[in-house]
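[Discussion] Sanity-checking designs against the backbone

I'm trying to build intuition for which residues belong where. Below is a C-alpha cell string of 393 positions. I'd appreciate it if someone posts a full sequence so I can compare it with mine line by line.
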C-alpha cells in the first residue's frame, strides 16, 4: 500500500494519529484546568511510566489543552547536569509572552519580566565574567525579588509573581517538565517548595511533570509532603481494545482494514506498548499489498519492525552503557523480566553488591534502569531483557 498514506508514527514524542487508552488521564487534566479556572485549589500533576508508553505525547497534549484555554504555557526537558534555573526562566518567559498581548497593563508585564531576568541571571552555572548574560528580555533586571541565589526562595517568588500576572487575566500558567526524574536533587526540593506555596495561596500556576516510574519516590525523598502535593497518573501499556483502536481508527480513515488474525498477531508482538504498536503497525502497512492487512502481512513485516526496534529503540540505549554496565544489565536480563534484587545480580556476577554500586548508579543516571523499590531494580525500557538475552555477551 501507499507508504505516503501510512498513518502510523513510531517516533520519540510523536503524537500517534489516535491517542487511544488515555481518556482517564485527559479527563483528569481537564478537571485540573477547570478547577483552576474557577479559582478552586488544585494540585499539580505528575505522569509516570516506562519508556515508550507515551508520557511525552501526553505531556504535549496537556500543553495543547492548556493553550486552547488561553493559558500561558512553557515546557522544559530536565537534564541531570543542568540546574533548572535557566530552563524554567525561558519557559516562563514564553508563558508570559503568550499572556502579554491580552494584559491591560504593560508596566505589570515589564515588572514581572524584570524579576524573571534577575532570577535567570543568578544561575550558578554561569562562569565568572559572564554576568552580562541576558535571557533575551529587554527590560532591566529587578533587585530584591527572586534573586537571592537560593533557588527555593527565588523559585517560590517567581512562581507567585507569574501566578499574579495570570490572575489579572483570569487564566492560568502551566509549566511542563519532561524527564522530571533528572532534575537535580536540590532543584527538586526547590520545585516542591514552590508548588507547596502555590497550593496554599491558590495561585493559578501548576507544574505538570513526566518521568520514569521511580519519580514519585524521588519527589517524596525530597519533600515528605510531595505525596499530597501532586496528582499522580501512572501510564501502562494499552489493553487489547485500546491497542486495536490505535491501529484501526487511523487505518479506516484511509479506507484500510485489518483481519482479526492480523490484530491478534500485532497485539502479541507489541504487547500493548504504544511505541511498539506504532512500530509494528507502520511496517505491516508498508508490506501489505492491499487491504485488508492480513496475518501473512504481519508475519512478513515483523522482522523489519524488530530490526528497527533493535537498532533505534534498544540498541541506541545499549550503546550508551560501558562494558561493566552491560555486564550488569545482562545479569539482570538472565534473572528475568520482573524487578530483580540487587543481591541476586551480585550473586550472578560473583561479586559483592557494594562493588557493583558504581555500575548500578551510573545505569540509573543514564535512565536505563530504575529502583522499583528498596533493593530491587528494573529496566526502564519494556522488553529490554528480551533484547539483551538475544545479544552476544
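Best answer:
Here's mine. Compare freely.
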Amino acid at each position: 500500500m501507499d507508504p505516503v498514506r501510512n498513518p502510523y508514527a513510531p517516533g520519540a514524542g510523536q503524537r500517534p494519529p489516535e491517542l487511544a487508552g488515555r481518556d482517564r488521564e485527559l479527563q483528569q487534566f481537564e478537571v485540573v484546568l477547570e478547577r483552576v479556572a474557577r479559582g478552586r485549589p488544585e494540585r499539580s500533576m505528575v505522569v509516570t511510566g516506562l519508556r515508550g508508553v507515551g508520557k511525552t505525547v501526553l505531556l504535549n497534549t496537556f500543553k495543547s489543552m492548556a493553550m486552547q484555554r488561553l493559558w500561558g504555557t512553557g515546557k522544559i526537558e530536565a537534564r541531570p547536569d543542568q540546574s533548572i534555573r535557566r530552563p524554567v526562566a525561558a519557559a516562563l518567559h514564553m508563558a508570559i509572552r503568550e499572556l502579554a498581548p491580552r494584559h491591560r497593563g504593560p508596566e505589570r508585564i515589564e515588572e514581572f519580566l524584570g524579576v524573571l531576568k534577575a532570577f535567570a541571571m543568578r544561575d550558578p552555572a554561569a562562569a565568572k565574567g559572564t554576568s552580562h548574560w541576558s535571557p533575551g528580555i529587554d527590560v532591566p533586571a529587578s533587585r530584591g525579588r527572586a534573586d537571592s541565589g537560593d533557588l527555593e526562595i527565588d523559585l517560590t517568588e517567581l512562581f507567585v509573581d507569574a501566578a499574579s500576572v495570570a490572575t489579572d487575566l483570569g487564566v492560568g500558567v502551566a509549566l511542563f517538565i519532561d524527564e522530571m526524574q533528572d532534575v537535580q536533587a536540590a532543584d527538586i526540593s526547590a520545585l516542591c517548595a514552590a508548588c507547596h506555596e502555590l497550593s496554599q495561596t491558590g495561585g493559578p500556576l501548576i507544574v505538570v511533570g513526566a518521568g520514569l516510574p521511580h519519580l514519585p519516590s524521588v519527589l517524596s525523598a525530597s519533600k515528605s509532603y510531595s505525596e499530597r502535593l501532586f496528582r499522580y497518573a501512572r501510564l501502562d501499556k494499552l489493553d487489547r481494545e485500546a491497542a486495536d483502536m490505535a491501529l484501526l481508527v487511523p487505518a479506516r480513515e484511509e479506507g484500510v482494514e485489518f483481519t482479526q488474525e492480523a490484530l491478534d498477531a500485532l497485539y502479541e508482538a507489541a504487547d500493548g506498548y504504544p511505541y511498539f504498536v506504532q512500530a509494528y503497525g507502520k511496517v505491516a502497512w508498508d508490506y501489505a499489498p492491499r487491504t485488508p492487512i492480513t496475518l501473512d502481512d504481519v508475519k512478513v513485516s515483523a522482522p523489519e519492525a524488530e530490526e528497527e526496534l533493535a537498532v533505534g529503540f534498544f540498541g541506541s540505549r545499549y550503546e550508551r552503557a560501558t562494558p561493566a554496565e552491560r555486564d550488569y544489565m545482562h545479569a539482570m536480563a538472565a534473572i528475568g523480566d520482573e524487578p530483580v534484587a540487587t543481591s541476586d545480580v551480585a550473586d550472578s556476577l560473583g561479586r559483592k553488591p557494594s562493588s557493583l554500586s558504581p555500575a548500578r548508579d551510573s545505569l540509573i543516571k543514564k535512565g536505563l534502569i530504575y529502583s522499583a523499590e528498596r533493593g530491587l531494580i528494573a529496566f526502564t525500557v519494556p522488553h529490554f531483557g528480551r533484547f539483551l538475552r538475544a545479544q552476544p555477551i
